């Protein structure tokens, strides 16, 4: 009898145990929405949610067992049940996913499949490899991964071996008859990309396609797919390693403020407008003399930032009375001056227009900024203002001095930001090379050893805004442009990226330096450099004393130069900019090349 009673009680308690536990398991399973996941796509996140629901059910049952149930279940039994539940429930998901990946969705390994090497066995490479292996009929066979980390060599990721390092690319490409190489390293800098491409010789470049992954911002949530891979572009060779900047000063400067961008239709000015608009200014006033470019940026901002109040103004900023009306109507709090004539050879044959436009525009804008109590004024300058050998560079140096001297008579914080070439600016060599390659060549370079600094426009503008936000009056900021690049190397890279061989498919011809052009540019004079606590920004401290009459004399010169002879203009220009080397831009340029080569520097192009 006692034995029979014990058996009945045991059965009854076991049934009660199962009923309560199953109820709690079902409740927590649906509460944490485990039921909405698809088992064949299960991931670590799904297993983590499963563990959460299982633990919740066990805790709920343990509390119920202590307070309500007449028969207590030993904690060890509960723990063993939890482990068994996770093993079978989680294991089922892993097994189903493995079956689908291995037998149902595995990519075709036929002879027609593209044979691919993935450069990079880190997180980005793993995400890309996982996407390729899970894509049905992708037509891609990943032969192996290569990585420069010796610790990873010989290991496997998703059963694909790491078979070498970057120095093995040429050998592996031939050995495995590779069709494509994928650079799976997020946020590659330009120097890294150039180094990787140098590991691949011209013959390999002809035989394989090289593709690159998107930037780090596109990897959020593991968002890496084969379709996102793209051909290496020239901008990838010039990209800098991302620098984390403190955005709060820029936000305080722009948010809910009235901002004026002069020359807002140009390459740098339009990017300034885009970045300013993204910070929600109260008003964005855009001045440009070209109605088409002004229309373009206005329409673009209307689509991307419809809530921003944009006021486009077509005008010549040299007309001071009209400029006064604009300042009076909109009362800008911050002014960014990005308008200038900047094409070096063209300005050498139009020196009057270069001086009048660049100098008078800057004088008019500084005068209006003082009159209407503008808070900050930022001039976009150029590396050609350093030891200029051309009229354009000399006028930009005059503009820097006008801005610095204006600060002595005003509460406005006047500053200048100086940098070299930006990729894609009007008049730069990149569009010219693209057009020449498209036509079959030749690609023309002035000299085999000529160098220039390069930077992407968004990167440059981000630093311009940062300088404008933190700068004090009478400051010249210089962007850290990295190492200068030989224009010959740039031309060769562009030809290779087009699938052609330099000096075989496309000839490179050397035409000689143009009037006013340097072999190398410089961002600052020796002894001028002074670092800031912001990455990639330096402040230049000039030893030149302030001159309260400088702007007045410069205005008189700019007005009178329209009726002066060219030699007289150049001689007087040197009075304002003593470091201007007039001889290097004369018709006797050939005799001056050796002198030009001795100048410090690096960069050509424009803003």
Could you please describe the fold and organization of this structure?
- With 607 residues, the chain is of the alpha/beta class.
- It has 3 domains: 2-104; 114-232, Rossmann fold (3-Layer(aba) Sandwich), CATH 3.40.50.720; 248-598, NAD(P)-binding Rossmann-like Domain (Rossmann fold, 3-Layer(aba) Sandwich).
- It is 45% helix and 15% strand.
- It is built from 21 helices and 21 strands.
- The strands form 5 sheets. It has an 8-stranded mixed sheet with strand order 10-9-8-11-12-13-18-21, sandwiched between helices. The chain has a 7-stranded mixed sheet with strand order 3-4-2-1-5-6-7, with helices on both faces. A two-stranded parallel ribbon has the order 14-17.
- α11 (291-304) links the parallel β9 and β10 (310-314).
- The N and C termini lie far apart (100 Å).
- The model is unreliable at 1-6 and 584-607 (pLDDT under 50).
Intertermini distance:
100 Å
How many distinct helices? 21
CATH class of the largest domain: Alpha Beta
Strand content: 5-15%
Total number of β-strand segments? 21
Helix/strand class: alpha/beta
Assign the CATH topology of the largest domain: Rossmann fold
Tell me about the biggest sheet? 8 strands, mixed
Count of domains: 3
* Superfamily (CATH H level) name of the largest domain: NAD(P)-binding Rossmann-like Domain
State mean pLDDT (0 to 100 scale): 80
Query: Helical amount among residues, as a percent range?
Result: 40-55%
CATH architecture type of the largest domain: 3-Layer(aba) Sandwich
- As laid out across the biggest beta sheet, the strand order is 10-9-8-11-12-13-18-21
Q: Give the C-alpha Rg.
A: 33 Å
The backbone outline, from C-alpha atoms, is globular
Uncertain regions: pLDDT < 50 for 5+ in a row? 1-6, 584-607
């Amino acid at each position: 009898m006692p034995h029979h009673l014990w058996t009945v009680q045991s059965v009854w308690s076991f049934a009660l145990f199962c009923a309560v536990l199953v109820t709690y398991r079902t409740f927590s399973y649906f509460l944490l929405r485990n039921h909405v996941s698809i088992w064949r796509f299960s991931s670590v996140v799904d297993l983590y949610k499963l563990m959460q629901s299982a633990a919740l059910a066990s805790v709920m049952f343990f509390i119920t067992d202590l307070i309500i149930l007449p028969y207590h279940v030993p904690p060890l039994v509960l723990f063993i049940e939890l482990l068994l539940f996770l093993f079978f429930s989680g294991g089922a998901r892993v097994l189903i996913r493995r079956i689908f990946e291995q037998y149902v969705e595995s990519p075709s390994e036929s002879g027609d499949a593209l044979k691919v090497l993935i450069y990079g066995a880190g997180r980005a490479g793993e995400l890309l490899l996982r996407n390729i292996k899970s894509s049905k009929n992708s037509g891609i066979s990943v032969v192996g991964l290569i990585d420069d980390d010796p610790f990873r060599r010989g290991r496997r990721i998703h059963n694909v071996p790491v078979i070498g390092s970057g120095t093995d690319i040429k050998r592996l490409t031939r050995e495995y008859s590779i069709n494509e190489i994928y650079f799976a390293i997020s946020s590659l800098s330009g120097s890294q990309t150039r180094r990787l491409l140098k590991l691949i010789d011209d013959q390999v470049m002809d035989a394989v396609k090289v593709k690159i992954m998107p930037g780090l911002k596109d990897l959020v949530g593991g968002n890496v797919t084969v379709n996102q891979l793209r051909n290496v572009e020239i901008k990838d060779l010039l990209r800098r390693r991302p620098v984390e900047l403190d955005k709060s000063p820029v936000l305080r400067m722009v948010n809910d403020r009235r901002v004026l961008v002069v020359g807002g239709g140009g390459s740098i000015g339009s990017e300034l407008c885009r970045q300013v608009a993204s910070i929600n200014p109260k008003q964005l006033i855009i001045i440009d003399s070209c109605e088409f470019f002004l229309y373009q940026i206005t329409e673009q901002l209307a689509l991307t930032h419809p809530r921003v109040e944009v006021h486009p103004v077509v005008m010549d900023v040299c007309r001071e009375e009209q400029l006064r009306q604009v300042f009076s109507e909109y009362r800008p709090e911050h002014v960014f001056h990005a308008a200038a004539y900047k094409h070096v050879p063209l300005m050498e044959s139009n020196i009057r227009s270069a001086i009048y436009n660049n100098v008078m525009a800057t004088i008019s804008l500084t005068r209006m900024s003082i009159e209407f109590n503008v808070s900050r004024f930022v001039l976009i300058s150029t590396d050609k203002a350093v030891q200029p050998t051309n009229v354009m560079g000399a006028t930009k140096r005059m503009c820097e001095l006008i801005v610095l001297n204006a600060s002595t008579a005003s509460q406005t914080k006047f500053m200048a930001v100086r940098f070299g070439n930006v990729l894609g600016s009007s008049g730069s060599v990149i569009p010219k090379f693209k057009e020449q390659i498209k036509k079959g060549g030749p690609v023309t370079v002035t000299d085999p050893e000529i160098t220039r600094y390069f930077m992407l426009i968004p990167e440059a503008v981000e630093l311009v805004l940062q300088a404008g936000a933190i700068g004090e009056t009478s400051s010249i900021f210089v962007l850290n442009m990295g190492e200068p690049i030989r224009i010959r190397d740039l031309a060769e890279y562009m030809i290779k990226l087009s699938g052609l061989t330099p000096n075989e498919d496309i000839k490179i011809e050397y035409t000689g330096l143009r009037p006013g052009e340097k072999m190398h540019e410089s961002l600052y004079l020796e002894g001028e450099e002074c670092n800031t606590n912001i990455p990639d920004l330096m402040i230049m401290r000039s030893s030149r004393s302030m001159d309260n009459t400088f702007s007045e004399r410069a205005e008189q010169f700019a007005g009178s130069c329209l009726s002066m002879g060219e030699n007289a203009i150049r001689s007087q220009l040197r009075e304002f900019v003593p470091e201007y080397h007039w001889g290097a831009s004369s018709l006797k340029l050939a005799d001056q090349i050796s002198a030009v080569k001795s100048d410090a520097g690096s960069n050509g192009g424009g803003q």
